[in-house]
Specification:
about 575 residues, alpha/beta, 25 strands
Length: about 575
Amino acid sequence: LLDRTVIRESEVSVCVIDTGANNGHPLLAQSLIDDNCLTVDPNWGTNDNDGHGTSMCGVALYGDLQPVLISAEQIEINHKLESVKLLNKDGGNTDKRLWGDLTSQAINRAEIQNPDLLRIHCLAITSDDNRDQGKPSSWSAALDSISSGSDDDDQKRLIIVSAGNVNDSIEWMRYHQSNLDNSIFDPAQSWNALTVGAATNKTTINNSYYQGYAPIAGFGGLSPFTTTSLECDDKWPFKPDIVLEGGNAGKDDSGFTTEIDDLSVLTTHHNYTSRIFTTINGTSAATALAAKYAADIQAQYPNAWPETVRALIVHSADWTEELKRQCGINPNSRRRDYANLLRTCGFGVPDLGLALRSAANSVVLIAQETIQPFKQDPSERKPSTKDMHIYELPWPKEVLEGLGDMDIKLRVTLSYFVEPGPGEIGWKNRYRYPSYNLRFDLNNVNERKEQFLRRLNHAAQSESEEEEDSTGSGSGRWLIGKNARHHGSIHSDIWEGSAADIASCNMIGVYPAIGWWRERAYLGRVNKIARYSLIVSLHTDETDVDIYTPISILVTAPVQIGN
């Protein structure tokens, strides 16, 4: 593997915040140098005496090592590693009330050591002590504060966090009801973090010792280890955001369940002088893999914001047939069914290839913009909504109309980082926790620009976000719908319609909704500028249809944006 591995010089790093790392491992040594092994407590040292951190590093660098070792192809690594020891197996750091501050210290140490790196933070340490139906905690709020840059110089950061695990083999016997009954762990409820749950494609058991055992989960289904937010209060974000490979477990004819190496992710062992490889599973493995995905995207698109990298991962995700079957999704499913699906496995399994490129029958448009959500006019008693952006999309109208009734999938993803409300005042209300909210909408078939603007202005001026009215919002065409997609700080939805209908729907509006910047104007944030990433894609399953070329010609000029 080392002989066919090419390590590119890179300014992209995955910072694994965990139990330390033993970087003398031959598969890690070139990518994780001594200077980049750090700790929040100098008395602990930087070494990994638990094994979890070194295992995370292996997946964050290579992914699952099993297919990598079997392959004969050249392996390219386009990012480096950093390690910050946050948890010490031999004691210390047990007061979980301090973990938000300690996580901030860990991130600061990495940034001081290498201030110019494009960094993905990977955190798979969680606690089941604070699972308050999805309500923010001091730790999750710290992640939101760190990622939004509200405590320093407005620097935005992508933090990828694990959803937490069902580690009880007795619980696995109740699969997959056990997934639904076990809520995500603190700080996975963070609004800004990319929260990762676990699915699995591992269903083959080769070890003869486990003859008679069968995999618990089916191919493409939820991993037995993953937690969900189905039991969380409906007003908080859907978590996890995505699911990735987290391994499977086995069961025998009596129903006895156990972990099996064949059903786990292969990675690097911390005691490498006696054993090179080990296995890892659960949402930890999935989180490390998500960090690798994010680093691959950041390496290809160095100008992409953290909000954009998060959006690309979510935008590329889809639900496997098994995930949909497990959650009862069928052609007659209602919006509530999709809300439950989102609370179980987020937006599904990301496709890294899709996130990295456009094909002839698929095109992706990306905007990174700033917006001022609110304003305080000295002549007015109360603050008000300020900016709204209108994008006139470069749809090749003649091409799309020529395709007639051919099905086209239009997907929109909006990603931004909120600043958490100071203290815990108002955290019981989802409109008082985030600094601001953003929303998107698309004009209806044959809806003129003037009509569209009036509709968006009405929505933007609304004082609350109750169930939308039926005055022509067009929500019925969306798979998820406005009310479900507007949870948290990343919103994604899909409309599958005819090419002819989509041809006339060429305007997207991004507008603000209520938040504490406006509601608590005395804190002096009401006039702040925010930023967001917007991704729009068109896709058809017809491989002989080229929609990419005509759109690429049209976007040689900048897409028009109006305030």
